[in-house]
Write a structure and sequence with these properties.
Length: 287
């Protein structure tokens, strides 16, 4: 059967993608951030998955205020990098895995989670920046991402957004779905977005290093309690965009220990501020 062997967590700041695309990774401002992913790029080569299930939020590219799915799973064969206003990122087309994606959709919906099934969409920096950070720079024509990717978009842009508890429970349903797929596949599940940041208003530029790291400690050691953190705490302590962290709970809910298995191994942990007025968190957990 298929199995989830690891979960990966990372921020997906658009300026990180721009720094990579414009050759700025070794500039003084950016160098410490990218150094935090040196381990991760080697780890990806050493633990290459067959499929990545990548949880992210769309930034008004595939969806808009006209249509706001709470949870949307991509079931297409491929996904083009989105034009977010300054042209698509110069990265390879993302190859999908329609068979596993369709199976997960079937299983998760039968477990009473209402998913929106998306057969065609472009993917923005929320998905491509984590791929670039973990897999390194890839030429759009001659390069390729290391494996197929299943995009899973979560609405954390327009309220109401799903609770941490709901996301954590959804991760458990996704693990059960993966493990019922009758093919020997090594699957990684990634949770992206966050950490503390606020992009507008009187508190624009807010960073809360202490809260971020305490939240990471709880995510690792007591994810069930972490899933009970109310929305107002994210907004108050981590800024209006800190609510993106609920997406990390989907990936954490899919880990073996939540279903009674052993605690995951912390393969890598990294935290850095600032990156374009955002706190960048990164974590790799192995089952």
């Amino acid at each position: 059967m298929a199995r989830i062997t690891a979960s990966v967590y990372t921020s997906h700041v658009p300026a990180i993608g721009a720094a990579m695309d414009l050759g700025k990774t070794q500039e003084d401002y950016w160098k410490p951030l990218f150094a935090g992913y040196d381990f991760s790029k080697q780890w990806m080569k050493d633990h290459k998955p067959d499929v990545i299930f990548l949880v992210y939020n769309d930034h008004a590219t595939a969806f808009s205020l006209d249509l706001i799915p709470t949870f949307a799973i991509g079931t297409a064969a491929q996904y083009q990098p989105a034009d977010e206003g300054w042209g698509p990122r110069p990265v390879p087309v993302v190859q999908g895995h329609p068979e596993l994606a369709s199976h997960i959709a079937q299983s998760v919906i039968q477990q009473d989670f209402d998913l929106t099934i998306v057969n065609k969409m472009d993917v923005d920096h929320g998905l491509t920046v984590p791929l670039s950070l973990m897999c390194g720079e890839q030429h759009p024509q001659t390069g390729a991402w290391p494996c197929p990717v299943i995009p899973f978009a979560v609405n954390v842009v327009q309220y109401p957004v799903p609770s941490g508890r709901r996301c954590f429970q959804l991760g458990q349903a996704i693990r059960r779905a993966v493990e019922s797929f009758d093919e020997d596949l090594n699957v990684h599940i990634w949770g992206t977005g966050g950490m503390s940041h606020q992009l507008q208003g009187a508190r624009a530029g807010l960073i809360n290093r202490e809260w971020d790291n305490a939240w990471l400690d709880q995510l690792i050691n007591d994810p069930a309690a972490c899933s009970e953190v109310p929305h107002i705490d994210y907004v108050r302590e981590a800024g209006s965009e800190g609510i993106e962290l609920v997406m990390w709970l989907i990936a954490r809910g899919a880990m073996a220990d939540v279903a009674g298995g052993p605690a995951p191994k912390v393969a890598h942990r990294f935290y850095h501020v600032p990156a374009s007025n955002t706190a960048v968190g990164h974590l790799i957990l192995e089952n």
